[in-house]
Amino acid sequence: MDARETLKLYFGYDSFKPGQDEIIRAILSEEDVLAIMPTGAGKSICYQVPAMLLSGITIVISPLISLMQDQVKALNEAGIHAGYINSSLTETQIAKVYAKALEGKYKILYVAPERLESYEFTTFAGRVDISMVTVDEAHCISQWGQDFRPGYLKIVDFIDGLPQRPIVSAFTATATEEVKTDIACVLKLQDPKLVVTGFDRENLYFDVEATKRKDDYVLEYIRKHPDDSGIIYCATRKNVDSLFELLSGAGIFAARYHAGMNNEDRKISQNDFIYDRTPVMVATNAFGMGIDKSNVRFVIHYNMPQSMENYYQEAGRAGRDGEPSECILLFSAQDIMINKFLLDHKDFTEIPYEDIDLIRQRDTKRLQIMEGYCRTSSCLRNYILEYFGEKRDVPCGSCGNCHREFTEIDMTEDAKLVINCVWEAKGRYGLNIILGTLLGANRARLKELGTVDYRTYGVLKNRSESELRLLVSQMLLDGYLYQTADKYSVIRMGNIEPLKDPNTHVMVRASRDREPEHQTGRSRKSTDSLTRAGYELFESLRQLRLMIAREEGLPPYIIFSDKTLIDMSIKAPADKQSILDVSGVGEAKYKKYGERFIEAVTAFMEEHPDAVTSIKDEDKHDTVKAKSQVKKKHKLPFYLNQEDADKFEYHDLYLVSEIKDELNRITSAENVKHIFGTDIFKLLTRMGYVEERQVDGRTVQVQTELGLSRGIEAVEKISKIGNTYTVLMYPQEVQKEIVEHYVGNVGYLESDESDEKNAI
Hints:
Blueprint: H1 3-11, H2 20-28, E1 33-36, H3 43-53, E2 57-61, H4 65-77, E3 82-85, H5 91-102, E4 108-111, H6 119-127, E5 130-135, H7 154-160, E6 167-172, H8 177-186, E7 193-196, E8 204-210, H9 214-224, E9 229-233, H10 237-249, E10 254-257, H11 263-274, E11 280-283, E12 296-301, H12 308-315, E13 325-331, H13 333-344, H14 353-375, H15 380-387, E14 405-410, H16 412-425, H17 431-439, H18 444-449, H19 465-478, E15 481-483, E16 491-493, E17 507-512, H20 532-552, H21 556-559, H22 562-571, H23 576-580, H24 587-607, E18 614-615, E19 623-624, E20 653-654, H25 656-666, H26 677-686, E21 690-695, E22 698-703, H27 705-709, E23 713-718, E24 724-731, H28 732-742, H29 746-759
Helix pairs in contact: 2-3, 13-14, 20-22, 20-24
């Protein structure tokens, strides 16, 4: 098996990202490697793939427990045997890890740098075949880096003490030329292959907001992004606590994390965030290194960080899945004073005395550079990249400063075009559809609705979306438009008579957004290719992923990333081969989860037989219908023949999934649809036995009073890693009612289904 086959088999990807193939080839040629790759570029793949192909074990030196645990969970989910050794394990557990590694059961073993000094580990290392030592977060070895860790200096002694020198690979996301040189020298890399893939994260949008009303900004931002997961970094514990209390008081589900909390509380907060129980994390910079959560959509810095390295590393925790995400820094002059105070009280306990003055000078210089970033009027992305040695001649066109021009704009003519678009829409659509139509956006939903055929489609494509949002806000204030207050609010025309007067002007005063000539633009969201049906399928797959994550005690993104679920929604796989063609689905994950996701997709496509889930970009009228690959012959709704009912094997208590499996097993009816757990739950809901409720921001299934009287039980279960979750179990009497419901003739069932649709 070669590297590309390994990538597909275990990780489900067909090709390598830039730089990955070059690094892997160098490692397999037994060369040392130093790789500088931005967050989200796939550093871990660069040592995990060759680790599977090298003869011995790969030791990965990693700075944080959370990083190790996440990586090992993900590897085991992918079918790769891996382990870790750190302070979270007991001595007995550590002994078992050593034993398994010596038996050759692990290909990858993660360890903390401090572990390298222990007698037990050095003895173990002398007995096992070590093919490669990988140093993750390698900038921690440099005293001139922003995260120097003295324990990293022990790595060289450890390598020198091995019976045979292994391949040494080092990886980091942020390193200046000075730090890069330091890493190579201190680790004694032998003629290393140096790979720098670039520091740019094109999917990240950078902005600096100079404001004293930071609390108001944060509240407004989160309310505008209620479904997004994000991190808010504060410089002090006090700020973390006060902002956490503010958000909680406003009804926003948030967690907090700082060094002043005890270990247990920090662990609970971290897990709540990782497992999507709380979408927002408020934290100091003590949080985040090694957190592999892929769907962080925003990172807000409540205070200015102390260095560009810190800022880029923390901001880089947004958008690890490659989807568009925002990195916003809230700046005030007080931030400079806070950081100067913190630097004045920096701990130099483990730093040689002669180096302290030089480090202080460099810290001061970094702070000045960071202040310059907050005050510059030039391209923010270029400012960052130039700091890391990448010179750009042209503004990026997709950061806050590239879009910012403070001016008062007469948008009267634009306002009239907005009115025309709302008139064409006949008051049926919300703000996003109106804006997308005016901008001429290439979205599947607009094509599906037919707004691409409006006269006003694209008439304001020279404007930015933020300009038009400001304009519509002004028109709402002026009464030219109004917005309905129901759940799915739409935009409708108000009193437009004043606009008929040539002396009436609509003026908008704001920081003006514009589209430069050399526009790279914000990245287009993957969900833009989904129609309404496609997005509904995506949401149902996300719910399935969340259910499995709770059962397994895993973060949802380790099951499948959002990107994988979007691709699954587009391709609508109906068998093993088609789901293996979905990006991010490998053999191991197919064996664990594939059939459940195929079942969910098939159920959706059977329920929506004419669904179009995606539309091609090339031609706005060229649609692509997701093919479920089920037979074209029309299938009848599920039912049982009378003799089938006697075959049902009753138990004292059954899960819905077990009832579903038993019904599908016993039916002898030909050409009927499979029944799914969701069908049975809907039936039980109509019977008044169960319902869904919102508990702590989550949707959970519970018994009603009637359900309790019928003997339906809520049973606690424990996942593989010890997490507790609750399931509903149904007694024999309810099982019999379900069986009896499905015994009948086809005509009755079809009319029943039709009546239900009409009722909806």
